[in-house]
Amino acid sequence: MSTPRILTVRPGPDEYAWTFGGAPPVARIAPGTVLDLYTEDCFAGRVRSEKDLVSEVCTFPFLNPQTGPFHVEGAEPGDTVAVHFVSIEPARDWAASTTVPLFGALTSTHATATLQPPLPERVWIWQLDRTRRTAMFRAQDSDIEVELPLDPMHGTVGVAPAHLEVRSALVPDAHGGNMDTPEMRAGVTCYLGVNVEGALLSLGDGHARQGEGETCGVAVECAMNTVVIVELLKGLATPWPRIESDTHIISTGSARPLEDAFRISQLDLVQWLVRDYGFSELDAYQFATQTVESPLANVCDTNYTCVAKLRKQWLPARETHRGVHARLREVAATLRS
Fold first, then answer.
1. In terms of residue numbers, what domain contains 287?
2. pTM score, two decimals?
3. Which residue, 121, 209, 306, 316, shows the most beta carbons closer than 10 Å to its own?
């Protein structure tokens, strides 16, 4: 096995992308390249204490900075970019979470307008123990402290959208983007359909951990040191972002209302079973109905994101996405050795 090329990228403060599409590539990479990346948190590192309110230290729409985009050589519409997450590690010993007025699932928003006042703006600073792999929650209105396990993930990974669109890095859709699913952790491969020449891949929005749904709208937001392997699957279309782990195949759907996000993810899973596992459409529909797990990813962003996941152990022994996940797992093992 040949040694892959490794490209290290540590962006400066003015070298992030804030959109998918519309930003020039920071580098051209060949398929098979390993990217060793630093990603800043969704606040661009500006929320560092409980006194740093988002409304005072951040400027909308400059939230969710992305490292990239990367032009993947040979990528064309109708292809798929595979992004294997080798490692996702917090870059600091602290992370931040907040409540933001008119944002989140349990408050009035600009789209769900009511007479009640918005929730107050608060900041929680989480202390991370990277050696013991823990994150410490400290309540502000009591003496409650709870030590939780780290579960690092990337809230945002995506490519440029189709049809010359430029989308805010806060928005998830068919191109990927701010899906905020805890499934996007180390050891998985994310499949993204290519919409423009070079794909223009970016990622960011690291979370030290996050519950399903990201209810208040903000996870344990953290800068990350992340290593990924980028591969290209020519002539293989992926209509919505998919994730493959060692144990599951996972479809995503992003839309509003929530039911449509659910439907997209379920339909994509059914179509995945038909294409790669030998099911007829109705057999796949029946089988998925009785086996699928359907965790929420986010119910707070511009579009909501739902996930449909199915255990590989219940599937026929077939190859999916040309076996790239297993191959990239092998490459990842050589990088760690």
1. 6-336
2. 0.96
3. 306
